[in-house]
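thread from #wetlab-drylab

HS: before we spend reagent money on co-crystallization trials with iron/sulfur cluster, can we at least see a predicted complex? here's what I'd submit
DV: go for it
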Amino acid sequence: MFIKYYNPNLHYAQNGFRYNNYTYFLKEKFGDRVQRISIDGGFTCPNRDGTKGTSGCIYCNNRSFSPFIKLKNHSIKSQVTAGFNYFHKLNATKFIAYFQSHTNTYAPVKKLREKYFDAINFQNIVGLAISTRPDCLSDKIFELLEELNKKTYLNVEIGIESVYDKSLKWMNRKHDYQTTVKAIEKLNELEIDVTGHIILGLPTETQNEMLGMAKELNKLPMKFLKIHHLQVIKNTPLATIHKNNPIKLFDYDEYLKILSNFISHLKSEIILQRVFSDSPIDLLIDPIWDKKSPEIIMDLQKFMRDNDLFQGKYYL
Ligand code: SF4
């Protein structure tokens, strides 16, 4: 049973949370626990196949966000089945099929359609989440997404990463912030729920600029946000840069502080799907915090409580 809301403006801040938590959104929407099943659709990325670049974004090693059930090259159906069998044993009964690896709108529309429909036609799938770049959404793809949105619950996840073009350039994203704004506005016009994905701790930004990013994000018609802290992952261009010229990364206490402040600058309508990165430890170079996810969440709640911070506190 849920305990009272912390603040009536924060509808999904329950059980002591001082920000809107995605878990409570899902529980309210679907009336039950909902588990995401990560799928590798076998797509690639324009920043890797030579269309925009070959080396990718400097922090990207797709192994760090690939499905934990290693079924690459397996059919969508077999991946969803494996995820279902795994989570069903843990008492999950409802699932969102999550196209997570690489750029999940980067293929001919016919191929995309087949894969998305293979996923949503599976029993107990209550929705679809599609992660992509803002520059990989053509008119035909928007039409397909609009159709899907009428058939199932759809959540499109856009890699914003930063609102500053200087940072996007440093990360080798090969798109600018305006492209992101246009993509999110168009998805909103189609009444599709959008998640923005950002990184805190880029060496191109001061802490004031990081907090300023919240102000800019508040202007976007975006329902959900995923916040990640910058991590250096093995076999990435960033790993080489960091080895030759170490980058200042957040230590644990610094991150709790900036994250709490950042959340306090967000408007109260945004729902947070994630508040830190969680890359596999065998791939992680830096920063090593040696903390498990529940501990980070508890420490964040405590820091916010001790400092009387809450989402929306500094939103003007
Ligand atoms: S982060 Fe995404 S857009 Fe960048 S290289 Fe990796 S898959 Fe491509």
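DV: Residues 61 and 263 are 27 Å apart (CA to CA).
HS: ok that's useful, forwarding to the group
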